[in-house]
Specification:
5 helices, 22-stranded antiparallel barrel, mainly beta
Length: 762
Amino acid sequence: MKKRKFLIYIVALVIISTQLIFAQERQQKRFRHGQQQSKTLTLKGKVEDWNGNPVKKAVILIPEIGKSVETNELGVFEFIQIPPGKYHVEVYAEGYMDYSSDVFVLTKNNFNYDIVIIKKISEEIVVTATRTPKLFAEIPVKTEIISTRDIEKKVATNLAQALYQTTGVRIENDCQNCNFSQVRINGMQGKYTQILIDSSPVISAMTGVYGLEQIPSEMLDRIEIVKGGGSALYGGNAVAGVINVLTKEPQENKTFLKLHQEFISRKPLTDLGFRSSLVSKDLNTKAYLFASYKKREPVDLNSDGFSELGTLSNTSFGVNFYNYFPSFNGKLKIGLFRIFEERRGGNLFDKPPHEADVAEWIKTDQTGFSSEWNHALSEKLLYSLSFSMVDAKRNTYYGSHKDPNAYGTTKNPLIFINSQWNYQLGSNVFTLGIQHKRDKIKDEAVGYNRIINNVYNETGIFFQDDLKLSKSFSFLAGARLNKHSALKRIIFTPRLSILINLWKALSFRTSFSTGFRAPQVFDEDLHIEQVGGGGMMVINSPDLKEEKSYSINSGFDYGKQIGRSLIQISIEGFYNKLSDTFVLHEIKRIEKARILERINGLGSKVYGLSADFGLILGPKFSFASGWTIQRSLLDEPEPQFHSREFFRTPNIYGYSSLSYENNRLFHLDLSLDYTGPMKAPHYRGYIKEDRLEKTHPFWVLNVKLRKSIKVSTSNTISIFAGIFNLLNSYQKDLDKGAERDSGYVYGPAKPRSIYTGFEFSF
């Protein structure tokens, strides 16, 4: 009996204990559920534009809970006390396309929710067309913009590569030895284009020879291109157009480190980059620092022992300093840069240049300094003062057959001073400016019996009236009086532009502009091309007159936002008439060189049509394409080959590009460049007689993959890899040996090459 009672007692105790345990677990579950229901989360991130600049005062909305916040000066936003759940965010910012994200699940705190929004093209600020900051939609003169994002997509390491895939613009390599390059706008040679740095014409005849490749991408913020005569604002040489290289003004504290490793025919090219932005808490003081190092081994593409791409070693660094004075509306900018470069082409690179069969060796050192002061005296009156200088010098060897006397030196200091006043009177903005440029060049090539010792002084006074009659009609007229020391008379260069906004999405622009080139030393004169074992030099005729141009550009621009998408279409016709065109003809031969003389021809004309198409489908897909069809003709055949067509100028060329951006997966960029047939002079040496060749067309396909990884809240590493010229579309009939014509090169600048690298930002 006692045993039975004891067993009953034990069973009851077990049952009671079990119930207590289950009751406790149910209570804990209810507690955990209640705790989960009361838990709130944080969503924090940053809003940037496609160039990586923070967007301030953007409104961020989470519609599901009706909460909204505004980004601060650094583009940062933060939501707190958000219940777990499914949400999407919307972003609204003045001047940008509206943004709506995909639905996401929030189950834990997210401190790295970054958003990229697209700026409306009508809200872009440009300065080149009028020398005053204006909205793209309001300028009568069309301006092409190459943004920071565009430069990054092209994997550009220098200015030349950044200019690729721009409608109406071509970059070409003009020397098989030293790889001297030039930019062509609408088919006209590089000497017809004025290159500016922060609106100052400090690219001289000497620095222009290799300057396109010497300016590193770390120095670039964006590039603005205005086609047609620009001498009314920028003086001589602005005949085909103006390329304005604008340097970086920082918006936030950030540093970037870059490694770009490329292999061209299994020969390495290494590019190291550094850029850092420093901004004070009150945003009034800013500094931007950059540095770049590049090194390339020689590349021999036809196995003749001579390079097609020479050795290259480039070290560049610089700093921009900005200070705002809000108490009296003033802004000071000071810039400094230095570029060292050594390049060499030919053969026997382990020996001094004069012991090689062919060598073109150039060692360059240039220091640049600039200062700019902008001051708003009132809401209507603004003036600016700027000073720029570049002190450039180089040592060279342009020779063959172990000539010990082919060494040379060049010194080329340049100074530019600018003063400008802007006054707004009603709907008019009047601009008055005075500029002076002093360009001194001393070049000695004793082995070729050539000594250049010239000083060119150019002073210009310009006036401009920018009138906005209504929302639909704007009118711009300007003129310049220019005195160049190489000319006896004053040159008058007017321009006139009209903008008509036909309706909100469609505008029409037309411009008449003028330009001129004075008879001075040009970049091609300072490059002694090696042909047939000797040099080829260019000199000016003593009777050479200035070359003048008259340009007409007219076109339609259409841009419309449809939901989260943006479509842009542009069609432009151009006509450029040159009078007293500079042409070359051979006048004599000396022991080591052929001498070409620059003389005035009757004239020439360049005309054609350009078309651009752009499509952005939300934040992930974008497509762009630009094509140019043109003719470039002399009024009379040139004297040597009796051809009326401009050399190295195809009648059709263009590009198409496609981008896919997915932050979770990867970014993909595809591009296709086309260069049509053209005529290229081929001088004897490797061949028996001079002749004019017609080249084959080229299709160049490029592909790039990029993946960004967030290391922490403020640290990101971006890994990229790709292939340039996947189809290996490259010149097949290169000359060989020491007797080759080093100037007989055309088409893509390099064959198939593979690259990879990373960029770390913090």
